[in-house]
Each structure stands twice: as structure tokens, then as C-alpha cells.
Design goal:
The protein is built from seven helices and no strands. The chain has about 80 residues and is mostly helical. The termini are far apart.
């Protein structure tokens, strides 16, 4: 699936469903995300929500691993959003 397809599916989720879905993921599940799933996640969530959902659960090695899977422009926008 493309990031756009994933975002289309997520548009049917309410906040409760989204939270329940992500709380049910193990770290192994998260590290198995495809590049398109990471792209959809960083586009679909605000910077603070993305950080809390993923990066707050990771060490530096994990954050760098994920950052390599996400387009540099999207990572830059994410970091700018965190500093606003």
C-alpha cells in the first residue's frame, strides 16, 4: 500500500480507534513498518503525537533507524513542528 492508501484507511478511524490500534503494537511491530507506513504516520500525526507514539518509546539507535526510512524533507518538517 502507498502512504496515500494508508492515510485513506486511517481517515475512517476516530481518535479512540487510532489510540487502541497503536497501543496494541509491540516494538517489533513498529520496527517492521514499511517506508510507506512511516511516511503515512509522519504525515498523518502532528509532530508531538508522532514523537509520543514512536520516538518516546525508542532509544537513539531506533530513532536513527526510523529517520533513515522517512524522506528527509518529512523529517525536517517534523523537527520544525516540534520546535514551534
Amino acid at each position: 500500500m502507498t502512504a496515500e492508501d494508508i492515510l485513506g484507511v486511517w481517515s475512517f478511524f476516530n481518535d479512540e480507534m487510532t489510540q487502541k490500534f497503536y497501543e496494541g503494537l509491540s516494538m517489533k511491530d513498529i520496527y517492521m513498518f514499511t517506508e510507506e507506513e512511516w511516511k503515512a504516520a509522519i504525515i498523518g500525526f502532528g509532530p508531538s503525537d508522532f514523537k509520543a507514539m514512536f520516538f518516546d518509546r525508542m532509544d537513539l539507535k531506533g530513532i536513527l533507524f526510523v529517520s533513515k526510512k522517512i524522506d528527509e524533507e518529512l523529517v525536517d518538517g517534523f523537527l520544525e513542528g516540534l520546535t514551534v
